[in-house]
Amino acid sequence: MTPGRAFLNIAHRGGRALAPENTLPAIRMARRLGGNVVELDVQMSRDGELVMIHDDEVTRCSDAQTRFPGRSDYSVVSFTWHELAQLDAGSWFVDELARPTSERQPYLRELATEEIEQWIPDAAIDQYRSGSVRILRLRDALEAAHECELAVVLDIKTIPRRYPDIASRAVALIRALNMEADSLISSFDHALLAEVRRESAAIATGVLTAERLYRPREYVVGLAADAYHPGCSGADDVVRRGVSANEIDGDMIREITDAGLLLNVWTENDELRMRALIDAGVTGIVTDYPNRLRRVLDEMNRTAPTGPRLKST
Question: Which member of 225, 275, 286, 301 has the lowest number of beta carbons within 10 Å of its beta carbon?
Fold first, then answer.
């Protein structure tokens, strides 16, 4: 890692293991858990509002099917912003926690009892199921992150959809809020990253991938990007060198970081694996549990202050 550069504790969709993902409580939770960067997902409503939702459809993380029953299409882009703003984006999380552990979404199956007791008290449960937790606009999310002294990684979703002008709209909003130095735009759509670079030289970009790239350093440099964001776990493990997950491709990591680029991996929740990745030289880890990564960083005497640098020099 570049000397003087803060390690990036990147909260995946906010502190999503401990608050409803991509919402205001999740952004605030990311900061409380020790994150210094929050990763959020950007899509577009039917009438052109940039909104914070990961899935192509709104059904998993909202009450859309109850509030708007009988629709033939629950994709994000089929809803206007006025409709999306009416949805309850918090109660589903409480319902998920009430399930038997084995039936929860995978990242919540490993949620420890002490983590629930510490970070999800009864008052938080009451808030999440109150109906007051709503889908955020990008503007709201950026302003909340700024208030929490968090840098922002925006994962712009354009697959399978193609949202016209989503890159230019995101760049314009980041610029209007004077958050260019605090933002990084990533995407699986690498053509979109080239579009962002044409729009702005100041906003960092990251090549997001779940597949191995041939000569990744040259690929990232060729896009004038600042970061390489490979998967690091399960079927998406791009940094594995051999059969075992313990075999990490340190040579590839050093080749990227020696070029002055960031190498931030996703999504890691296991503390032993976090330590191994840090030892291998990654510059940041995307995690559903920033509290665990914060603990590992403290044990390793690694700093993670607010306001980390996202742009390569």
Answer: 301
